[in-house]
Task: structure prediction
Amino acid sequence: MTRQAEALEQLEMWKDAGDAWKVCVEAGVGGATSIAGRDRCARALSGTTSATAKTASHNKPKPKPRPKVSSALNDLGSADSEAVSRLRLANAAADRLDDEKFALSDVVADRVSRWRAGKENNLRALLASLDTVLWEGSGWKKVGMGELILPGKVKVVYMRGIGKCHPDKLPTTATTEQKMISAAVFAALNEAWDGFKRENGL
Result:
């Protein structure tokens, strides 16, 4: 449960992540981590504009770049040590990554939403259409619905799918967009798998 909440939070899907953290807290899973996650999502939701207005708009304006926050490192003057230089570089790299994620968030959310549409809780349909959401060169081979009749076979294909999109198993050459897609797909498959297990007594 916490993995799903973390993946949703990474995609900045604050409402869904908040709901997932809330379930974790109520189930007594994750302890302080779940409570902190729930609180983070609540703060993020209270500081954002209406998500429904954002998704209702077909002509989305280009995202504005995040304002640059002045760093205490800028006040150190020219007598920088090697450690301060490394820290500056790390901060700059983190800022670039955040900017890239922000710019890609709508594209990734749209791609994953189109894949999930109408089959959110249907694990077989999600697995059969997994090739439509994963990127070219992901190594995923399309699976037909005829191969997903038996629950045992569904479990095998699910495990292969999770292996392809698990955030820790992505190649080091994966792009930021690919990492964001894999995190969303990972969360969606886990959610559908939980329902599938209940329905089939696995």
Observations:
- Residues 3 and 105 are 19 Å apart (CA to CA).
- The chain has a mean pLDDT of 78.
